[in-house]
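Hi all, posting the design record for the shared folder.

TITLE: backbone redesign
STEP: 1 of 1
STRUCTURE INPUT:
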């Protein structure tokens, strides 16, 4: 929580105004931000200075692990965040590669589960990494990436949180996650939750003890229509103690995650929060 607030304050104090070419909006921006999450000691990085809808964030990472390609699939497990990018993004709606309503194209989980090799065969990145980690193999390349430069035009959006690297070190499993772009007021807590849950889940199903997540953000920004809300409301609130996350003990395999795991299998313990803040969303 303190890391989140410090980052917001740093952007406000040291950020520079940059006009985003895709959205046409001005963003107060800094380059390079590093955050850490302590999964080993179950310090769940949930924002307390506003209500955070953590189940939707967990639903989204479950969808990525399953390789979802449709906003309809995400809605079925309680996540609506892909509705706009799949259906309201004009560039994507006019893209000849779009298959119709709710289609997201080859983004995120599709790349993670069905990366296309040059010969047309598919690589399941998640399965490869999980198999290795289950055998305690770390070849310094236990990497899952959603960023495929050759297929960017085949998806509704370029991946923001694009690469996850797992490392076995000192008998613990660590995760380093790379994010090219981050809407800090609106999106960052989703990303924090997902990094934490991803390490916790992969450690659980590979029988490894979790360590920490190292979260690197390249471009961290606050949109101009979010700035006054951040300064005058959220940053004036006093944070509450950090909560803990309880995961259903029956989750044991990748197949479990693929078939029956639901956001309701994740419970937050001790979450006290201030009232919701509705930040504007920029498509």
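Okay, here is what came back for every position:
SEQUENCE:
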């Amino acid at each position: 929580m303190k890391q989140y607030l410090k980052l917001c304050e740093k952007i406000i104090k040291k950020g520079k105004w940059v006009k985003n070419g895709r959205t046409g909006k001005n963003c107060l921006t800094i380059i390079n931000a590093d955050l850490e999450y302590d999964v080993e000691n179950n310090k769940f990085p949930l924002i307390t200075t506003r209500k955070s809808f953590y189940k939707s964030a967990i639903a989204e990472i479950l969808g990525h692990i399953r390789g979802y390609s449709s906003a309809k699939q995400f809605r079925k497990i309680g996540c609506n965040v892909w509705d706009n990018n799949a259906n309201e993004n004009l560039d994507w709606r006019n893209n000849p590669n779009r298959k119709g309503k709710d289609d997201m194209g080859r983004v995120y989980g599709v790349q993670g589960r069905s990366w296309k090799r040059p010969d047309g065969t598919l690589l399941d990145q998640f399965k490869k990494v999980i198999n290795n980690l289950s055998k305690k193999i770390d070849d310094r390349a236990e990497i899952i990436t959603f960023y495929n430069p050759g297929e960017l035009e085949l998806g509704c959006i370029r991946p923001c949180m694009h690469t996850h690297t797992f490392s076995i070190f000192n008998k613990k499993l660590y995760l380093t996650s790379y994010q090219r772009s981050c809407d800090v007021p609106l999106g960052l807590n989703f990303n924090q939750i997902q990094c934490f849950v991803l390490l916790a889940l992969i450690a659980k199903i590979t029988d490894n003890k979790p360590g920490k997540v190292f979260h690197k953000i390249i471009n961290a920004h606050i949109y101009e229509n979010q700035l006054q809300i951040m300064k005058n409301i959220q940053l004036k609130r006093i944070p509450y103690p950090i909560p803990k996350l309880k995961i259903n003990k029956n989750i044991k395999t990748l197949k479990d995650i693929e078939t029956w795991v639901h956001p309701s299998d994740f419970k937050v313990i001790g979450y006290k929060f201030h009232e919701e803040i509705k930040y504007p969303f920029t498509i």
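COMMENT: Residues 2-269 form a domain with the Thymidylate Synthase; Chain A fold (CATH 3.30.572.10).
Let me know if anyone wants the other runs.
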